[in-house]
Design a protein that fits this description.
Strand order of the largest sheet: 1-2
Distance between the termini: 57 Å
Structural class: little secondary structure
Strand content: 5-15%
Bound molecules: zinc ion
Length: about 70
């Protein structure tokens, strides 16, 4: 078993698993979870679905749009 790079070691305490624990919640990096999801009604077919993307089209309609047909 080889040690990781010395530079990457935390000199003070290696038992801290969350380096952001000391930061206030708004300063912590957000984990990319379901919080980004929003409910969208597809403008193409009316399908209601959840997405974290900017689109207002479901996967199927986006495919059609992407094909430019
Ligand atoms: Zn659709």
């Amino acid at each position: 078993m080889t040690e990781p790079n010395e530079e990457q070691k935390q000199p003070q305490c290696a038992c801290i698993k969350d380096p952001f624990a000391v930061l206030p919640p708004e300063m912590r990096p957000r984990p990319q979870k379901k919080s980004n999801l929003r409910q969208v009604t597809c403008l193409g077919c009316g399908l209601v679905f959840w997405t974290n993307r900017e689109t207002n089209y479901c996967m199927d309609c986006e495919k059609k749009l992407g094909q430019g047909s």
